[in-house]
Specification:
With 448 residues, this protein is mainly alpha-helical. It has a single domain (8-215, 227-447), classed as Up-down Bundle (Growth Hormone, Chain: A). Helices cover 79% and strands 0% of the residues. Helix 5 crosses helix 15 (374-386).
């Protein structure tokens, strides 16, 4: 096992804090894109099908490059200095965000321009994520890994909490200032302000990162001449250890259920919950922000919970499956709800489970895979676990224009509960933390 770096925990805390800026900035941009599509490009009720397609296209642009580029990104991270990889990706992402802001200012951001820029940002994010996810395992002592994983989950959910309300405020800021006689030059559209701030957060995160010492573990195996040989290693490693493959299959089902939320949530707020929030005197932006913010609160509470508790020390697979079942039940109840506030509480419950299950899963992988191999293995892991998400998002874009989104979500939630409950009795998953058995399975496969 590769030893952790001196002062690694302190470095991790600094890295975690500064990279939080760019994560929050990206969450702001994603929410702003949703508002931009819903209120600027496709505002009319008769444009529901076009809006569903646009939301699906943007979601796919954000997911596909990250998922299918992950194996190459992971192999690249294992071959090169991880700090330099993260720094270059921070700068590239800053340029993408600044370009989005400039195009909004110029009034030249149609869907066919927006989608490629989102895809480019996602591609850069996949390389950054591959380097980042494998870096803190060599910074943090093994006994602190569950806590670090909980903090990482808190980071993602905290961004989900802060982004909706903050983005809604920033989008409305130029209009609010205009009412007071203050006009921001070139920033009549608040969406541009969000994108520009996102670019600034990437620049700050990159500059701070450059001053940190992020070790890159030395490889104990011979480095293949071909990058694609490294990509193939990740697949071979996982396929030789069937319990890990079953764990990924379970996440594939959960991601198939969860991926369409980005498409269905705005549609449900606009068309299913519309009578309720209109009766309360709210706007669509406020209702969507409320739902996302309360959901984010649930995610943050889940992250704080797992960070404070530290998670299960054994049988961690239960920390994956039980939260998945609870999250599926929350989605079923959400599909039946016609009350905005009740829907927000149910979304919070669903988001509460995500940091808990992800932290347990990450701890399993970090203890089963040597650090010098984690870039290649983790990236393939991400590909297998998330490959169903884009397919589900594509189907959601079609189905959302044909069927009530709440009905589709009901079916998906029931499927998640049933599948994950069945996995509690899967003999392979129940022994996924038995490293000696996993290596025995790999040896048997190599001998055949």
């Amino acid at each position: 096992m590769t030893p952790t770096a001196p002062n690694g925990w302190r470095t991790f805390l600094t890295l975690w804090g500064t990279q939080s800026l760019s994560v929050v900035g990206s969450a702001l941009s994603y929410f702003a894109i949703t508002i931009y599509l819903t209120t600027t490009l496709y505002p009319a009720p008769e444009q529901r099908a076009a809006l569903a397609f646009a939301l699906s296209a943007v979601a796919l642009a954000g997911a596909l490059p990250a998922i299918f580029g992950a194996p190459v990104a992971g192999a690249w991270a294992d071959r090169h200095d991880r700090k330099r990889v993260m720094f270059a990706c921070d700068l590239g992402s800053a340029l993408v965000s600044l370009a989005l802001g400039l195009l909004v200012i110029l009034g030249a951001l149609p869907l066919w321009v927006l989608v490629p820029l989102v895809a480019l940002g996602s591609f850069l994010g996949s390389f950054h994520g591959a380097a980042f996810d494998t870096s803190y395992a060599v910074l943090v002592p093994p006994e602190r890994l569950p806590r670090a994983n909980g903090m990482m989950q808190t980071l993602w959910t905290l961004s989900g909490l802060l982004a909706p309300g903050l983005a809604a405020f920033l989008i409305a800021l130029p209009a609010l200032l205009g009412q007071r006689g203050v006009h921001l030059p070139f920033l009549q559209n608040g969406t541009a302000l969000v994108f520009l701030l996102d670019g600034l957060t990437f620049l700050v995160a990159g500059l701070v990162l450059w001053r940190l010492h992020i070790p890159t573990p030395k490889r104990t195996d011979a480095v293949p001449k071909s990058l694609m040989s490294d990509v193939g290693f990740g697949f071979r490693y996982i396929l030789a250890r069937r319990p890990l493959l079953w764990l990924l299959g379970t996440f594939s089902v959960a991601n198939f259920v969860g991926a369409p939320l980005g498409v269905f949530e705005p549609l449900i707020v606009k068309f299913t919950l519309g009578p309720d929030w209109q009766a309360r005197g709210l706007t669509f932006e406020a209702a969507l922000a409320l739902l996302a913010t309360v959901g984010g609160v649930g995610g943050v509470l889940g992250g704080v919970f797992i960070s404070s508790w530290g998670g299960l020390k054994e049988r961690r697979v239960l920390g994956v499956l039980v939260p998945m079942i609870l999250g599926g039940l929350a989605l079923v109840a959400f599909a039946f709800s016609r009350n905005l506030y009740l829907s927000a509480v149910l979304m919070a419950l669903n988001f509460f489970t995500i940091p808990v299950l992800n932290a347990h899963s990450q701890a399993i992988w970090q203890t089963q895979v040597p650090p010098e191999m984690q870039g290649r293995v983790f990236s393939v892991r991400r590909l297998i676990a998330q490959c169903t998400g884009p397919f589900a998002t594509f189907l959601a874009g079609i189905a959302g224009g044909l069927f009530p989104p709440a009905s589709i979500l009901l079916v998906l939630g029931i499927a998640q509960v049933a599948f994950c409950a069945a996995q509690l009795f899967n003999p392979y998953l129940r022994r996924v933390e038995d490293r000696a058995w996993l290596e025995e399975l790999a040896t048997r496969r190599a001998a055949t």
